[in-house]
Amino acid sequence: MRVLVIGSGGREHALLLALRRDPQVTALAIAPGNAGTARLAEQHAVDVTSGDDVVALAREVAADLVVIGPEVPLVLGVADAVRAAGIACFGPSKDAARIEGSKAFAKDVMDAAGVRTASSEIVDSPAKLDAALDRFGPPSGDPAWVVKDDGLAAGKGVVVTADRDAARAHAASLLDDGHPVLLESFLDGPEVSLFCVVDGETVVPLLPAQDFKRVGDGDTGLNTGGMGAYAPLPWLPESVLRDVVGGIVEPVAAELVKRGSTFSGLLYVGLAITAKGPAVVEFNCRFGDPETQAVLALLDSPLGELLHAASTGTLAEFGQLRWRDGAAVTVVLAAENYPGRPRVGDVIVGSEADGVLHAGTARRDDGAVVSSGGRVLAVGGTGADLSAAREHAYQIMGSIRLPGSHFRGDIGLAAAQGEVSV
Question: What is the SS3 assignment for 366?
Answer without folding.
Answer: coil
